[in-house]
Design a protein that fits this description.
By secondary structure, this protein is α/β, with parallel strands linked by helices. Helices cover 48% and strands 15% of the residues. The relative contact order is 0.11. The structure holds zinc ion (ZN).
Length: 461
């Protein structure tokens, strides 16, 4: 299995640092608003990575932080006149609802920044003690000049970093433009914590360092994020962590590319800015959105268009129809070697795809080839029951990674199936008026019923 490591700038063979267990850290959301669909591209990529590692037999221990204190969360709470925690709780809850909507597996731990201030203070103190940080009034800054490896991840040289460094209004006192705040002095009206450097609040970068070290140790296997995080956030994480512990921070850095909308960068001013909830409100199926987000390779920009979402919905329907067909086909009398070979080939190609830097588009290509060829085999009476059962089992197995085939419509199937049972009961007692009413009700929702000797099947059209 190989992954492209941003630090090495090439694909490297992946092996966990310890035994079979993969320790992974993922930069999570700032909980000040609903996450936009570009954020979910990264979370779906990380979900795929996690699921792929588990599918290939590894045990995964994943940590995703929740940034619940920063300028935006503080501003949001102030504008509503409520405590910070009450404000961020709302968006933490929304975030988890959105993860469920997209069938994203939960990480093992979701530490909140405000619950880990003592751990951050301890690392800031260690950096001060080692001469990697300095105090200016009540604030503490990391001294980039004290860490010569700075810039290795992004490949930026010192001059570029200087040119790119933005001096925030409240940071004018730092001695070098590249330096960044580890601790920000208390400001009137803002939440604060006590520390040996005086009352204040932690900087954003130190949060990920403190929480990853706490839950994963000083060195762990994989750190992920969007390409936006490479500089300065991940560069700063490396500097703080390695300066504090004296050990290598991360073995593999994986970053996913942007989501663009109709070929353009998503932005509020262009009016092409969508939350996940916006897309659902437009009538897009949650799993079609998930399918779309996983259908492009994570290192390539992905272009969100109405047509792409509709194609994803159609592709999903092909998978669902195939699944349903496998469940009801009785099978041919005897097995045919070419059908067995098709299954063998598909399984091998699916695995080769994911093992090659999580090339899920390649795995999906193999899966859709199988759907087409196996359907043809069924049409021609060439697929026997053992092959049908094996194809069905392969869908279940592949779906441990894809998460779109078995779920179909989270929370929605039961209601439809209950209505179908009600209709069958009505037909049994020859109450055709009720049976027809249920059929019409479902048809109005775009669900078509098909009565076969094996029972009634349904599909969306
Ligand atoms: Zn982070």
């Amino acid at each position: 299995m190989v992954f492209y490591d941003t630090m090495a700038r090439q694909k490297r063979e992946f092996r966990p640092l310890e035994g079979n267990r993969v320790r992974m850290y993922t930069c999570g959301p700032t909980v000040y608003d609903y996450a936009h669909v570009g954020n979910f591209r990264a979370y779906v990529f990380e979900d795929l990575l996690r699921r792929w590692l588990k599918f290939r037999g590894y045990e995964v221990y994943q940590v995703m932080n929740l940034t619940d204190v920063d300028d935006k969360t503080i501003r949001g709470a102030q504008s509503e006149g409520i405590p910070l925690r009450e404000y961020t709780d709302r968006y933490v809850k929304a975030f988890f609802e959105d993860l469920d909507t997209l069938n994203i597996e939960r990480a093992e731990v979701y530490p909140r920044a405000t619950d880990h201030v003592p751990e951050m203070v301890e690392i800031v103190q260690r950096l001060l003690d080692k001469g990697h940080a300095y105090r200016v009034d009540g604030s503490v800054y990391f001294s980039v000049a004290s860490f010569p490896a700075y810039g290795a991840l992004s490949g930026m040289n010192v001059d570029e970093v200087m040119a790119g460094a933005r001096v925030e209004q409240d940071e004018y006192e730092k001695t070098d433009a590249r330096d960044f705040a580890l601790w920000k002095e208390r400001k009137e009206g803002e939440p604060y914590w006590h520390s040996p450097f005086g009352p204040g609040r932690p900087g954003w970068h130190i949060e990920c360092t403190a929480m990853s070290i706490k839950y994963l140790g000083p060195t762990f296997d994989i750190h992920t994020g969007g390409v936006d995080n490479i500089f300065p956030h991940h560069e700063n994480e490396i500097a703080q962590s390695e300066a504090a512990t004296g050990q290598k921070f991360v073995n593999f850095w994986l970053h996913c590319a942007h989501l663009i909308v109709e070929g353009e960068k998503m932005s509020k001013s262009k009016g092409n800015f969508f939350t996940l909830r916006d897309l659902i409100a437009q009538g897009h199926h949650p799993l079609a959105i998930r399918f779309f987000l996983l259908s492009g390779h994570y290192r390539h920009p992905l272009n969100l268009t109405q047509a792409a979402l509709e194609q994803s919905r159609a592709a999903l329907q092909r998978l669902w129809d195939f699944r349903d067909r496998l469940e009801r086909e009785p099978g041919a009398a005897e097995s045919h070697p070419e059908v067995i070979a098709l299954l063998d080939r598909t399984y091998k190609e699916f695995i080769e795809g994911g093992d090659d830097d999580l090339n899920i588009p390649r795995s999906l290509g193999a899966l859709f080839d199988m759907v087409r060829e196996f359907n043809a085999a069924l049409d021609n009476g060439l697929a026997a029951k053992p092959e049908i059962d094996r194809a069905r089992e392969m869908l279940r197995e592949f779906d441990r990674v894809l998460g779109v085939i078995e779920a179909r419509e989270p929370g929605g199937d039961e209601r439809i199936e209950a209505l179908i049972r009600e209709r069958e009961e009505a037909r049994k007692r020859r109450d055709f008026a009720t049976a027809d009413r249920i059929r019409e009700q479902l048809r109005a929702e775009g669900i078509v019923l098909e009565d076969t000797p094996q029972g009634t099947h349904w599909k969306r059209v």
